[in-house]
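WARN retry 2 of 3 for item q-0093 after timeout on previous attempt; input resubmitted unchanged.
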Amino acid sequence: MAIAIDFGTSNTVVARWNPARSQPETLKLPGLSAISAQNPPLIPSLLYVEDAAQSKVILGQQVRDKGLDLSGNSRFFRNFKRGIGTSVQGFVPELDGQIVNFERVGEWYLSQIVSSIRELPLPVDSLIFTVPVDSFEAYRNWLGKVSQSLQVEQVRMLDEPTAAALGYGLADRENLLVIDFGGGTLDLSLVRLDSNGKKPLGFILKWGEKLLADLEGQKAKVARVLAKAGQNLGGSDIDNWLVDCFVKTKGLVKSPITTRLAERLKIQLSLLDRATEVYFDDENFESYELELERAEFESILAEHGFFDNLDECMNQVLQQARRQGLEIGDIDAVLLVGGTVQIPAVGRWIEQYFDRAKIKCDRPFEAIAQGALQLSQGIEIKDFLYHSYGIRYWNRRENCHSWHSLIKSGQSYPMSEPIELVLGASVENQPSIELIIGELGAETGGTEIYFDGDRLITKQFAGQTSVQPLNDKDGARSIAQLTPPGYPGGDRIKIFFRVDEQRFLRITVEDLLTNATLLEDKAVVQLS
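OK item q-0093 returned
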């Protein structure tokens, strides 16, 4: 049985394909899923460590039911998805003699969810994980490693916006813009749906001996990604902005309790013009009544550049679309997913770009997980590289290392023609040539992730290109042993770069002096 898991910053959704009804359904996991009349079964992305040495944890709704999210205990984790695969500055707790980083917390969380699915009991033969469109390769690699311990025959990944496009089931529409705005990330993805007769594909992380032969004869639907843009911006940032406002205006202290109250106010303001929550300070035995009007709330959003960031992402996607020959009027529907899209101001912002009739927002929580299940029902995904990739060089003018872009974001794969690069030796009697390849982030700025007390903060800053080196370690940098040694003053090697169908960057190296092939189609790293 195929299970799809939409692991979100604030909530996680688990879905399965119901063969009796021939449609997807969201699973309710006892003790983990929150029960709500307004929303489908959502698993709060919360975790509390009881014993790190024994990997004994509590997660989901159980954390809230036990009140473990209201203490300042370092054993409690929220928003931990944001820290996975990133360099986090600040305090990382040591619990029960164990260093507990976000990768470990995430592994505990997903492992317990899969165990709870099996307790229903349901067989788990195939897992499909959805991933943010702007996730660095480190996050995907981490997810792949976690998958190895889950004892599942087949594990696949699909980016969240494409899954949402499939989940809304608009098969009669061609060009769909998906706006995925959850607790931690804003992802915009323009996808095109069409049909062909090819066999279903997908990025397969791990195969067992059993193949899904029942899919062979089905007609696949292709979801081709035309444009993407994303930012580390979400509902948890808004919660923090509200807390900061109450600290400044009401004299409250930052704590998990005030964060929870801010979240409740934000949710209320999606339905009401004015929201009220009562706060009790158990240290001073004083109570406060927190009120917030929708107009004041939207003013706080504007002060933090919220709508400017939204406009930046929208403009990026529309510019990419124009390069594909598509104008804004060619977009057939706009699909909204994630809890943050329920904020009325977000809806009005979208209506500045699109007619209300094109905007769909009836499945904000379930569309991603249920859409990902389409991979098990004969869907083929065609995609392009989201990030740019380059090589590091010494910038003599600035007297520092810089990065030269080699493969631009938007490059389709597999590549039909390789990219050529010619290099020479930089010192006399040089025995080898090293090359450091990096994943280039946004050219207009970067992201800093750090702790402020017990809060995980994501800060955007301008003026730099965020880069994540991919092979900067011993044994991985060297691409050519030079025999005889190299000398400055001329070209020595020619490198051919290509990306294969599994997104592996492969290189071929030729020695221009000896005409020897030093490396042939060697896989260096897998790209995203």
